[in-house]
Amino acid sequence: MTGLAAVVLLMVLAFAIFSQANREAPVSAAGASNASVVANLTGTDNVAADRSRDEPLAELGVAPSTDDPAAVAQAREEAHRQDAAGK
Prior knowledge:
This protein is an all-alpha fold. The protein has helices spanning about 1-25, 35-40, 45-50, 55-60, 70-85.
């Protein structure tokens, strides 16, 4: 029972220490960027990077890209032919 009390006491002590550390004001170095400004920055390049990752199978050459409707239609027809030949 004393071991349990010691563990509970240590947990309460650790909680008190960590909660006090969270209440302290953040340290700001001279010449450092303002965290609130950096958090609100948006990049215009991110859209292009996300667009290239839309179709990972097309990048590997496993599936056609959906940007070209003719290629998608051709792939569907070929898949339909393969299904019909397999049955």
